[in-house]
Specification:
It is a single chain. This protein folds into 2 domains: 148 residues, Rossmann fold (3-Layer(aba) Sandwich), CATH 3.40.50; 112 residues. It is globular. It is 32% helix and 23% strand. The longest helix is centred in the middle third of the chain and has 20 residues. The strands form 2 sheets. Strands 5-4-3-2-1-12-13-14 form an 8-stranded mixed beta sheet, with helices on both faces. It is an alpha/beta fold.
Length: 277
Amino acid sequence: MSCEILTPKNKVLFFDLDKTLIDKDYQITDTRIIDSMGEMQVRGWVLGLNSDTPLSSLEIWSKRFGLKGPIIAEKGGVVMFNGEMHFNRDLQETFRKSRNEILEMAKKLPNSFVWEGDQVELIRRGEKLPEAASSTAILISNLRKIGTSFHIRKVESDGKLINDRQTYDNTLNKLRGSYPKISNLEIDENPEYGIVILSSSEVNKRIGMMSVMKLASWTQIGMVGDSDSDFVGHDIAVQYAVANSKDNYKQKADFLAKGTYTTGVKEVCDLLLQTGR
């Protein structure tokens, strides 16, 4: 890991979303990042997103940040490049069936309330669900193409959604039987976020990145992230880490920012601007 920032051969920079561009509450922690990104794009940089988040949500975030580059979604499984979407339609059908099974089992759980939609936006805005008062809310995404995700929340009497570890664990114990029965299933159960993400190990951020690089004829790009899933390989990327990154990713990174979350990303952008490229 270097104290000096390295610049990729191609003026291309991708950003992870969760715990990188935004914090664990899905908030931008330094709005000045938008100006820094705008200046980079004026100077010829291509800026895009590479996240586990569904494409439609990433398109919203891309507009919020004013980004104009490609989007790699669902941990590399869905790619949007020059207005064209690329993904595995067989995997889409597998996870469509899985989502329906989880949905039906969730509805059968006692004292449960099932909600479908963009659950991340619901949580980010701090909205309440008074109709689900004093129950367990299972918030299922209807956005993913080759995966399934859902949040579990304890609902207080006023409808406020609370991330409660006991509620999370108890509900998961009852829902695991509905997970898809496939050999390449990747399970991400994250109590810190109160979320479960089911995907296929056939895809990852490196595969998605290499797909975009081939389409664009790029040889080396930059990747800003916070965890091992953001490590796409030194052979194709310069790796940048925000200060809140996992220790293992910090060790792999070519540069470690002093700032956390959005502030750390802004630091990387501003230093790359100072290189004069």
